[in-house]
Amino acid sequence: MACFDHPEFDDHESIVFCADARTGLRAIIAIHDTTLGPALGGCRVRAYESDAAALRDVLRLSRGMSYKNALAGLPLGGGKAVLIADPQNGKTPERLASFGDQVDRLGGAYITAEDSNSTPADMEIIATRTAHVRNLGFGAGDSPSPVTALGTWLGIQSGLEFAGVPLSDAVISVEGLGAVGMDLLHHLAEGGARLVVSDIDKAKTEEACRRFGASTVPAGTGHMVEAAVFAPCAMGAGLNARTIPQIRARVIAGAANNQLETPADGQRLKDQGIIYCPDYVVNAGGVLGIPLQGETVGMEERKRRAAIIRGTTLEVLERAARENIAPHIAADRMAQEIILNARR
């Protein structure tokens, strides 16, 4: 696999390929930039179709974390890890512990955390082998998901405000009902939105109907709903040349990472008149809620810190309109300016 010539390589500082024959561990850790501080980013667990797909994902995700942490005003750089395994039966305690050893060898340059298919309980196992795990406890009340959902809710409000669309009675299509997606539904229902949900897990859509009065559409069709907002909260790359012409929402704002399959897809959304709230701006609540070293921060303070997402999202959309560029480009430029200024 090419690394330096890879289309997603962006002068990443380190790319570490991890293997352990004893446990079967296969993982990649990418550190994009540590100008602002150690690289914080979650560990995603996924049975990738190829090692090349895993490399592409970790390169994109780690760059997104650099930009997310910069725009959040945190003294942290950006990194990410992918653990190549079936989330159901390949995420063994032995492999997680071995992954902790790999993180520890980096000496604090990378700090790991939850991500798709990794949990607070997994972090607890990893923390038996390294201190370089996000600075929280590992109980259910310490999950970053509620704060990520709150930030996404604030980003949706900003997108609607920028579009001039009132929230009350607005149709919002939420795709992906994991911990963040389900918490997001709670905020949207309290705000008076009419909810449409989709997920591959029928039990989750049934729960959403029961708890929030949502209606359902088949998995993979949430973007086709005629809605004020489409909120992608599942896996990334769902906004692409195939799906964008099918989108019937005015605004896109969701918790999924890497929502654009390629940078060109951000321009496609702009050309179609769709307001895209960049994913790493909207979903920054989780990192904003993580206490810095030596802090003890309760849930209310974590939520208070996430409140900046509302203003940052509006700032990105306003800059994009002012410069006549796509919002993802505006967000990238803002983050790059913060990092470059810190190097001077």
Task: Compose a concise summary of this entry.
The protein is α/β, with parallel strands linked by helices and 344 residues long. It has 12 helices and 12 strands.
Describe this structure in words.
This protein has 344 residues and is of the alpha/beta class. It folds into 2 domains: 14-66 and 75-142, Rossmann fold, CATH 3.40.50.10860; 145-340, Rossmann fold (3-Layer(aba) Sandwich), CATH 3.40.50. The protein contains 12 helices and 12 strands. It has helices at 51-71, 93-105, 120-126, 145-163, 179-190, 202-212, 263-271, 279-282, 285-288, 299-306, 308-323, 327-343, and strands at 14-20, 25-33, 39-40, 43-46, 77-84, 110-111, 171-175, 194-198, 215-216, 227-232, 249-252, 275-276. Strands 1, 2, 3, 4, 5 and 6 form a 6-stranded mixed beta sheet that branches. It has a 6-stranded parallel beta sheet with strand order 9-8-7-10-11-12, sandwiched between helices. Strand 1 and strand 2 form a beta hairpin. Helix 1 packs across helix 12 (327-343). The longest helix has 21 residues, at 51-71. The mean pLDDT is 94.
Integer count of domains: 2
Q: Biggest sheet: strands, sense, closure?
A: 6 strands, mixed
The top level CATH class name of the largest domain = Alpha Beta
What is the helix fraction of residues, given as a range? 40-55%
Q: Nearest-angstrom radius of gyration? A: 19 Å
Indicate the mean pLDDT. Answer: 94
Low-confidence stretches: none
CATH-wise, what's the superfamily of the largest domain? NAD(P)-binding Rossmann-like Domain
Shape descriptor reads globular
Distance between the termini: 34 Å
Structural class: alpha/beta
Number of helices: 12
- CATH architecture field of the largest domain: 3-Layer(aba) Sandwich
Classify the oligomer: single chain
> What would the CATH topology of the largest domain be?
Rossmann fold
Order of helices and strands: EEEEHEHEHHEHEHEEEHEHHHHH
